[in-house]
Design a protein that fits this description.
With about 290 residues, this protein is α+β, with helices and mostly antiparallel strands. The protein is built from 5 helices and 20 strands. It has helices spanning about 15-30, 70-80, 105-115, 185-190, 275-280; strands at about 5-10, 35-40, 50, 65-70, 85-90, 100, 120-125, 125-130, 135-140, 145-150, 155-165, 165-175, 175-180, 205-210, 220, 225-230, 235-240, 245-250, 255-260, 265-270. It has a 6-stranded parallel sheet, with helices on both faces. Helix 1 (about 15-30) links the parallel strand 1 and strand 2 (about 35-40). It starts with a strand and ends in a 5-residue tail after the last helix.
Length: about 290
């Protein structure tokens, strides 16, 4: 499908953001594309270009264009929500796992994409429910991970983990990461978790600095429901979604996590495979 309406979400603090937007917006307009941008770039507004609050940039558009890094892509995915709107990631800095295009490649491949020459890759994401006294007090989505972690001065926290209502183990650790295959190359990997191919349907459970050496990461089927119960009173404990949103937790709180019915749709121009990006990021073969 050809693209005629684009919403651009930008990491405005990037040193390349203003320069990129100043060139990209006129380039899109010359090709008949209507554009919605963040109001920080209001000076670029005009015929066919609307500057609106960030939360409204994607309204009525056919593709979300994320300019920044993986963090910007994750926040764009949150704005997309439950819609089927696809996202194209352009990296303004170092190579990312989610942002396929670099600044050097953007115009060559974007020209093909708006003409309909692209593929859609679906990535599973997580639904998380925050329960107090059995009642849901918060509902969240995450493309990368759902993390329960202690604050800077908190002691080791105690969590009971259940899968489909059956107790699996007690975690005594700095926290617990529940991630998608997409998120397996993020915080979970840094905590010793496995790398999963992002097209898999699975969930990874990774303890953070566990006290017992026997407490290891676990990969479970996509239809499992995971529930973590905070059983200790260890000071500050938080629930964090994709490293960007957080809420405080108290003893007795429960976090229920399962796969969302709505995946995130990524625009792929067929340039780099996951394994090429992985090899580059992890410097495989380098000495």
């Amino acid at each position: 499908m050809k693209i005629s309406k684009v919403g651009i979400i930008t990491k405005v603090t990037s040193p390349h953001a203003l320069e990129t937007m100043s060139a990209l917006v006129p380039w899109l307009r010359q090709r008949g594309i209507s554009v919605r941008i963040q109001d920080e770039y209001g000076h670029l507004a005009g015929d066919g270009v609307q500057a609106v609050p960030r939360s409204r940039v994607l309204e009525g558009t056919e593709m979300a264009l994320s300019l920044g890094g993986d963090g910007t892509f994750l926040s764009t995915a949150r704005l997309v929500g439950d819609t089927d709107q696809p996202i194209l990631g352009v990296n303004l800095g170092f190579l990312g796992f989610l942002t396929e295009l670099s600044l050097d490649e953007i115009y060559e491949y974007l020209g093909r994409i708006i003409e309909g020459d692209y593929e859609i890759e679906e990535r599973v994401r997580l639904e998380a429910r925050h329960l107090k006294n059995g009642e849901v007090v918060g509902s969240f989505q995450a493309l990368n991970d759902v993390v329960i972690h202690k604050g800077a001065l908190a002691r080791i926290i105690d969590l009971e983990t259940f899968i489909d209502g059956k107790k699996v183990t007690n975690h005594r650790a700095d926290g617990l990461i529940i991630s998608t295959p997409t998120g397996s190359t993020g915080y979970s990997l840094a905590a010793g978790g496995p790398i999963l191919e992002p097209s898999l349907d699975a969930i990874v459970i990774t303890p953070i600095c566990p006290h017992p050496l026997s407490d290891r990461p676990l990969v479970v089927l996509p239809d499992r429901q995971i529930e973590a119960h905070l059983v200790s009173d260890s000071g500050e404990v938080y629930l964090t979604l994709d490293g960007q949103r957080g809420v405080g937790l108290q003893r007795g709180d429960r976090i229920r996590v399962y796969l969302s019915e709505k995946p995130v749709r990524l625009v792929r121009a067929g340039m780099k495979s996951f394994y090429e990006v992985l090899s580059t990021k992890l410097q495989w073969g380098h000495r």
